[in-house]
Amino acid sequence: MTKKLSTRRPRNWGGVITFDELEPATYTVKAEAFDSDGIRIGSGSIEVKVVAGETAEKTILMILASNRDVINYQKYYLWNVYNSKYYYDEFNSITSDLTINNIDSVSSNKPGNSTILGFAESFYAYYIYYIENADSQFNRTNFIYYKGKGSGPYDIKFTSTSVKDPLYFDDSTDCLWIGGYDSSSGELKLLQITEPSTNFISTISSATSLYSTNFSVSRASYTAFAIQGSDIYIAYTNSGTSYLQRGTITGSNDSGFSITAKGTAQSTEQMGVAGTINDIAILYDGYVYVLISDIEKLTGHTINDGDTVKSRGAILKILGTDSGFEVEDILGWTNSARTISSKLNNDSNNLYNNTNAIYQINSIKAYIPKLSESSKKFYGAERFVAIKPKELAIADCGANIILPDYKNKKNGNMFQHDRVVTVNLYDFAITNVTELNNLDFKRLYISGNISSIDGFSSSYSSDEE
User: Can you tell which superkingdom this protein's organism belongs to (predicted)?
Assistant: First the structure.
């Protein structure tokens, strides 16, 4: 019997780790070593047989990582939305003035009417998945760009609808997974590329379909998945609610896959939050990290008096259990609403044209972090943009709102925030937030009576609260 072991490590941990209260069995212990900068420098594993009443002491020999591994481990992967298209690039570090050229930074062969759906990183390469005719679910062309050996992009045609985040790299088994689903039956479909550093081109060039998993949810749309060995976590939405399901996956491309559910699916509400699951990562510390975004009324809607507006997110720290999984911690979530009010509405000195008084907005109910607390909250956690030994870097996108100042004839406004949020894995705390001045992860906007009142002047970021 083989089990995956994990242990919590203090900030300055030594070279000895003790596992106790283990059932008699044979275990595989994996270890990784990092330098003081958090760069991976070695890894190793050993098999340990545990006998009742005895203590087993073993030493793990670390194999030094190659320079290629070290270089790729530190990249950040960001994107920019421009004219409804997605443009992508990689960076060695994050600063507020980063820019991405609004041309194809991946390959000149990328079709002009395509959009990037997802990306994944291994120690030796990165992969980008994008589709042509993104608004059509069927009869479309899919492309995979592989920055490693060979050139790209590689043209593949899948009849499946793509998972919203369709790529996942399992570095414990050196496998790249591509995910899709049948929109009629709700069945999840997968393609596995083992050792993609040598097999990527041959596998992808002959791929014509994704393979059945025997896991289906009627009328579901899948948003993300993560796999480590035989362990799989699946995120999907059904009837407007987002769910997370754990399972065990067996099989291969040749024989087909089979996913056996482990426990029951939990909705985001059951997990203590709300909204949509956007990304999942299974790390070597034994935890699963899940990104949540809850955005409402910020994609072109008219906001009226008394409306509820949402821009919030969270990262969940999840631990697998014998009966499925449980949420151990929630970070960055805005749980309660605040009231955002207009200024001097209906005041005796109100200069607003009374013929338009029916359009005045007194207040809205906002599940949005205040500007003063935004360094410890998410506006809408979208994707992991870097996974490092000691921290996670997360693309966060959302917006804050101010209402009009009717006395001084000043419009309200929406302030979009596109940020990289760093979460320390030791403390499970937000330790850094970098506002990106030149990148838009999404196109968010409002219309109507908040920001476009005739005769009113504009408001600015200095007015944000």
Answer: Bacteria
